[in-house]
């Protein structure tokens, strides 16, 4: 059994050895539904000691308390251990973008930094490194990540100097990563790389070179990397690296993205959206980063892992509820992931069961399967770095025929668009 399946209460009790009577005298409920009023007086990895009002002690295992008690203790821990809500050394505060942080070891390189609204220095946080094809002259690309950052509790850093056509892009982003790990309380192994177009290729390269990076959220590219185009090659990712890709239906890099994912594990996801060569919208980035975060948690063994998991389940549960009506297939995708990890709460189990019976969900799952078959037939064979900008009559006819089945959901239009040629890159 994976560490990811361990009871969520473990960390909570591990780091609360003694709590005052006034703070912790409450009704505690077991997973079986029985309740007692008691005070938490001792805990470690193996036991929890509760003191009843009559003075007798009850020793129980950590996974025997209800999710509500775990939630109570998580909030208590956050408040009890809360530290400074910013990084005074670099004038960064929670919930605001700090522009142009220069790297301490080499001020040639810099980045824009965002600390999530719930940030404080009493714990460590996940982090996502972002590269934009045009660099970070503006912090505008970072804005697409802020909702995800606040929901998940994830620090965002956008490289200023890394950009297309800059031979030192790899040095710039590596300097950013090293500086963030040194000066910000972030977690090795709970770090991700992301970007758009050439920035996405840099994200793949960072994940290849830096073992602290656990996952990639790619937008607008396949996994081909290069500093000079003549050196183009496939990124050499570790088998544990999880990849979630977002790409426009008519992006000229759709062939490379399709071919890359044809070689990735089935857990990795290639997700199309209606559009050309551009960033995906903030909602899609939030959904993608949520899945990348979860994959990282599966392999993370830090002492704070259980607290991170409990917080993760809460954040993804809220996201699922928000998607329930407008995109039930995406709500089902995320709830199925939690179900696979044995992390569905009793409330979400009900939601998941309802989604399982939703005809739109079944239709979307069938459409996703047909899209995979379609891209494998028409996009993967085109080539790793070849732009399919010419019309293909056979492809378009088959797409139109296939799409009719899915016209009641957005997948129908996406399939039709996949049948059309991609839009060539703009001339410089």
TrEMBL record:
Top-level taxon of origin: Bacteria
Q: Which InterPro entries match?
A: AB_hydrolase_fold
The molecule here is called: SLA1 homology domain-containing protein
Q: What is the lineage of its organism?
A: Bacteria, Pseudomonadati, Verrucomicrobiota, Verrucomicrobiia, Verrucomicrobiales
